[in-house]
Amino acid sequence: MGPFIEVVLGGLMTGMLYSLIALGFVLIFKASGVFNFAQGAMMLLAALAMARFAEWFPHWLSFDNKLLANVMAFAAALVMMVIVAWLVERLVLSKLVNQEGITLLMATLGVAYFMDGAGQTLFGSDIYKIDVGLPKDPIFLFENTFQGGILVNKEDLYAAAIAAALVALLSLFFQKTSTGRALRAVADDHQAAQSIGIPLNRIWVIVWSVAGFVALVAGVIWGSKLGVQFSLSLVALKALPVVILGGLTSVPGAIIGGLIIGVGEKLSEVYFGSMIGGGIEIWFGYVLVLFVLLVRPQGLFGEKIIDRV
Questions:
Q1: pLDDT at 304
Q2: Which of 67, 135, 223, 246 could form a disulfide with 154 if both were Cys (CB 3.0 to 4.6 A apart)?
Q3: Counts for the chain of helices (H) and strands (E), in that order
């Protein structure tokens, strides 16, 4: 039972990090009705900014305090992501109001490639380190209950706690604030939302800014674990099955979907990987989603859309 619980806990912590990335996809989709393929590029750009600003500020301002450098770098990276959100709305989305979903989808692909190139131009293409003080040492829990205890990575535990807190905060934002309700109204119908006085352009800037903040937090966590490199944007691909499984419009679905896939891929890799050669973690989420879509195309918590003629 001890090793089983250890694997499950590892899967839950990984799943919460998947949920954090998936939340960025859900935020954009709820506000614009389009799947944002630029989310991975946003996470990479934010992580690059955090890593480089944390390195540059002590040199520019002649101080040697890692905490201050990280705080300043996080603030600067957040300001940059808000500016990016404003530019995306002003230069891209405002030109495509009330266009077909496929048009907006292709626009996000263009934004993604632009962000990848801009990040390399501004911050370089080497591998950079983010050190925000997350402990790297593993710990043993329940040593008196299970023989040898349960091995848990401290960094994963702290990262999962941060992700869970942010997910809970954003869930409350969507459900309890007037801006959150406006975001949901815009997602349902752009024209109807505009007709009752909801400023579509301002809403898009807000939601892309919030998605940028989520991308920054996710980028800092994953950058701390893996290092900041251009393959970091591919981590967002791990969140695609999470989004589809939970439902494109559901914040709770992003959470539960992430936990299901995180636990499922860990258990399948540990208990079935040796039977079929390993590598189950890479494709488990996609196969699971494929079977779910055959039964519920809208995902577990997504809204079923019925078109009446």
A1: 66
A2: 135
A3: 11, 2
